[in-house]
Write a structure and sequence with these properties.
Helices cover 44% and strands 15% of the residues. It has 407 residues and is of the alpha/beta class. Helix 4 crosses helix 5. It binds nicotinamide-adenine-dinucleotide.
Length: 407
C-alpha cells in the first residue's frame, strides 16, 4: 500500500484523494480549517455527487489534516493540487502555492516524489529541477470538470504522467510515473483507459492545448451565434446542421456569454504567454474572441433596456440570474456573466443580482437578493447565461443565448 499526501482539497485534490484512498493510505492536506473540519465529518466542502457519496459510503483510508509537514513526512508520494492563478502583470501563472508545498516536502522528506497536478506553464517542471536538483518531480495534467470531479477520475479520458528529462532521477521517476498511472487506473471504474508516459514539458503542453481547444470551440459557436443574431438567422438550425458532420460533432456547441470558470480564461492566456516571440494568430484570437463576445452581449442587453425604457417610459430594472458559470455549479470563479455585469456598470446600468450562494448583500456595487419571487417581480429584463426551469414563468423577460438548454 502506498502512502500518499495530497496538498489542496479543492476540485482536483479532493477528487484524487478520494479516488486514491480506496486502495492507499491518503492524507488530505489543506490550509483552510473549515474544509478539514467538514472532511473529518465525511462531508464534502464542494458540490460533487460522487465525492459526497464516496465520503459517506465507501471504505476510504482518508485522513484530512491541516498538518502538511506531518503528512508529507510520512508520504511516498505528495500530489500537489494547489491553485495556480494567472498573473496578468507577470504574464505567468502564480506558482507560489505549489512552491510553498515543495519547500516543505524538501525539508521534511526529500526522497518523496512530488506529482504536480496543478496547471503550470510549459517548462515549469524542468525549471523546478534546475532550481531544486535534489527534488523528485513529476507532472500529471488533470482534465476533470468541476461538479463532475470524481466522476471524471472514475472514468478518465486518459491518464498522462510527465517525467522531467533533465532530472538526475529520470529513470527512477519513469518507474514512479508508471506506478502512479497504475494507482489512478486501479482507482477508476474503467479497464481500458489510455495511459501516456511522456516528458513533463510535453505533458504540461497537453494540458494548456487541450483547454485552449475547448475555449476555441466555445468561442467558435459563440461567434456563429453573434453572426446569426445580427443577421436575423436561426443559430439553432445552423449549429444543428454544422454539428451533424461527424468530424465536428453535436457536443459542446451551446452558445453562452463567453467561456469562463476557473480554468479556460487563465489557461488560454497562459498558453498565449508561452508563445512569446513565436508566430501565431489563432491563440490570440481565442483570447480576444471572449472579450468581443462579452462586448456584444452587453451591447445587446443595453439595446433591450433602451427598447423597454422607450416603450414603458420608465427606467427598467435589469436582473442577473445567477453568477455561476454552469447550472449546478457551486462557485462563480471567473464566470462570464461577471464580465457582462462589469460592462453594464461601465454603461451606467446597475443590476439586481439573484445568487442564492452569495451571502453578501452587494456584488461590485450591484444589489444582491436571495428571494427569487422578489427578483422576478422587480426585474423588467432578466439576463441569464444558462436557462433554468425556475425562469419558465417569466420567459418573456429573459435574455439568454442558452439555445439548447444544457451546458
Ligand atoms: N477546477 C478545475 O476544473 C481544474 C481542472 C484541472 C486542473 N485544475 C488545476 O488544478 C489546480 C487546483 O485547482 P482547484 O480547482 O482544485 O483549486 P481550488 O481552489 O478548488 O483548491 C485548491 C486548494 O488548495 C488549498 N491550498 C492552498 N495553498 C495550500 C497549501 N500551501 N497547502 C495545502 N493546501 C493549500 C486551498 O485552500 C484550496 O482548498 C489549479 O492549478 C487548476 O488550474 C483545475
Amino acid at each position: 500500500m502506498t502512502t500518499i499526501a495530497v496538498a489542496g482539497t479543492g476540485y482536483v485534490g479532493l477528487s484524487l484523494a478520494v479516488l486514491l484512498a480506496q486502495r492507499n493510505k491518503v492524507y488530505a492536506v489543506d490550509v483552510v480549517p473549515e474544509k478539514i473540519e467538514l472532511l473529518k465529518r465525511r462531508m464534502s466542502p464542494i458540490a460533487d455527487a460522487e465525492i459526497e457519496e464516496y465520503l459517506a459510503h465507501e471504505n476510504l483510508d482518508l485522513t484530512p489534516t491541516l498538518d502538511g509537514r506531518g503528512a508529507y513526512e510520512l508520504a511516498d508520494i505528495v500530489v500537489i493540487a494547489t491553485p495556480t492563478n494567472y498573473d496578468p502583470d507577470k504574464l505567468f501563472f502564480d506558482t507560489s502555492y505549489v512552491e510553498q508545498v515543495i519547500e516543505v516536502v524538501l525539508e521534511v522528506n526529500p526522497q518523496a516524489t512530488m506529482i504536480i497536478k496543478s496547471t503550470v506553464p510549459v517548462g515549469y517542471t524542468r525549471s523546478l529541477v534546475e532550481r531544486y536538483p535534489h527534488g523528485r518531480f513529476l507532472f500529471s495534467p488533470e482534465f476533470l470538470r468541476e461538479g463532475k470531479a470524481l466522476y471524471d477520475n472514475l472514468h478518465p479520458s486518459r491518464i498522462i504522467v510527465g517525467v522531467p528529462s533533465n532530472s538526475s532521477f529520470a529513470d527512477e521517476l519513469a518507474d514512479v510515473a508508471r506506478e502512479f498511472a497504475n494507482l489512478l487506473a486501479e482507482g477508476s471504474l474503467d479497464d481500458d483507459t489510455p495511459v501516456l508516459i511522456m516528458r513533463a514539458t510535453e505533458a504540461e503542453a497537453v494540458k494548456l492545448f487541450a483547454n485552449t481547444y475547448l475555449a476555441l470551440r466555445v468561442a467558435y459557436f459563440n461567434e456563429l451565434d453573434t453572426y446569426a443574431a445580427l443577421s436575423g438567422l436561426d443559430a439553432c438550425q445552423i449549429i444543428k446542421g454544422v454539428g451533424l458532420d461527424p468530424r465536428i460533432g453535436s457536443h459542446y456547441n451551446n452558445p453562452s456569454f463567453g467561456y469562463g470558470g476557473y480554468c479556460l480564461p487563465k489557461d488560454t492566456k497562459q498558453l498565449l504567454a508561452n508563445y512569446r516571440h513565436m508566430p501565431q494568430d489563432l491563440i490570440s484570437a481565442i483570447v480576444e474572441a471572449n472579450r468581443t463576445r462579452k462586448d456584444f452581449i452587453a451591447e445587446e442587453v443595453a439595446k433591450r433596456i433602451a427598447e423597454i425604457a422607450y416603450a414603458s417610459g420608465k427606467v427598467p430594472t435589469v436582473g442577473v440570474y445567477r453568477l455561476v458559470m454552469k447550472s449546478g455549479s457551486d462557485n462563480f470563479r471567473s464566470s462570464s456573466v461577471q464580465g457582462i455585469l462589469r460592462r453594464l456598470a461601465e454603461k451606467g446600468i446597475p443590476a439586481l443580482v439573484y445568487e442564492p450562494t452569495l451571502e453578501a448583500s452587494e456584488f461590485y456595487g450591484n444589489e444582491v437578493t436571495h428571494d427569487l419571487e422578489y427578483f422576478k417581480r422587480r426585474c423588467d429584463l432578466v439576463v441569464a447565461n444558462r436557462w433554468s426551469e425556475e425562469l419558465d414563468d417569466i420567459s418573456d423577460k429573459v435574455f439568454t443565448r442558452d439555445l439548447f438548454r444544457r451546458d
